[in-house]
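Hi all, long-time lurker, first post. I run a small reading group and we've been trying to get comfortable going from sequence to structure in the token notation. Rather than ask abstract questions, I figured I'd post a concrete chain and ask someone more experienced to write out its structure so we can walk through it together at our next meeting. Sequence below, copied exactly:
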Amino acid sequence: MIIPAIDLIDGQVVRLYQGDYQQKTTFDLSPLAQLQSYEAQGAELLHIVDLTGAKDPSKRQIALIGELVAGLTTDIQVGGGIRSEQQVEELLALGVKRVVIGSLAVKEPELVKSWFVKYGSQAICLALDVNINDAGEKIVAVSGWQTGGGKSLESLVAEYQSVGLQHALVTDISRDGTLQGANTDLYRELAVKYPDINWQASGGIATLNDVAAVRDSKANGIIIGKALLIKNFTVEEAITCWPNA
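-- Answer (accepted) --
Happy to help. Here is the structure in token form:
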């Protein structure tokens, strides 16, 4: 599945380089118009990251997200700064299909697991952002990649499988925003090891060849942000490249 994505800071469409707020590109685009364009081209799931909320949960762009959901018919998943059950409830009440939980899944697993039990595994997607060290260990980062979580990807997956983990978004931090291609070896490994989980690949996509490589890795979906914004290719072209999207 092709999953077009936009990142939002103070209502503007932006892209960060490797999660660094100091390395920000702002696009002169209407968030709603951009997402409607993706929807019109056949996208069946859209991904929104509230970077303002990720940095300061008290400034979450909840009104804007509500406007976006209301203006679209396509399913939407939203991440960025989710810290409480109230915030999960708020997004689901707006009509968001799936809430993306990142740092909190590492820091407070018992809390997040309780949400799986209460809202169902289809309502929550884990965002596992990994640094891969020289030994090949996949260490999950937290707090907008500013600190290491100290837990391996495998240990977190095992923990959340106990509550029915179905959806997980995995980003190789070293690839994000770089347009250097995705870490297909990582996604291939995860697809083989955990075939019951829907893996969303993220980070580094620049060309349709990159899309095809992730498709061949057997990831279930691919999140594409910057490459679409700078018009390297279209959503329609990406979907054609990924049959049965």
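A couple of things your group might point at:
The chain has one domain: 2-241.
The domain at 2-241 is CATH 3.20.20.70 (TIM Barrel).
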